[in-house]
Amino acid sequence: MSFFVRPAGSGDRYDFDGTTFTVKADGGDTEGRVAVMEQEAPAGLTVPAHTHEGEDEMFYVLEGELAGFCGDERWTASAGAFLFLPRDVEHGFEVVGDAPARALTIVGPARFDALVVSQGRRLDG
């Protein structure tokens, strides 16, 4: 593992279930410890209930508003909010309002990034 900088706007981009993910750091960059992706989702996008087995997921909301659940808890988060969704707990969310949402998605250990790459559609440029 070595030092790197990914300048603004850089990183491999994928369309994954209607959301654009830009990979900033993947498991290969961090010896599998963590992955960081910028996520851009359109207004109205719904991510259905799912579970990340053995992987924590975090969001730092950059723009827009998200609303969802984690286990029995309901939440709403807008720009500047940070969410921690623990591993093995069912969760889901949607982009609320008329604007798209943008968030940093952080997972650890890194697994979800490999799913985005293997099942997503690579976007050019």
TrEMBL record:
InterPro entries: Cupin_2 (IPR013096), QDO-like (IPR053146), RmlC-like_jellyroll (IPR014710), RmlC_Cupin_sf (IPR011051). Gene3D superfamilies: Jelly Rolls. It comes from the Bacteria. Residues 41-107 form the Cupin type-2 domain. It holds the Pfam family Cupin_2. This is Cupin domain-containing protein.
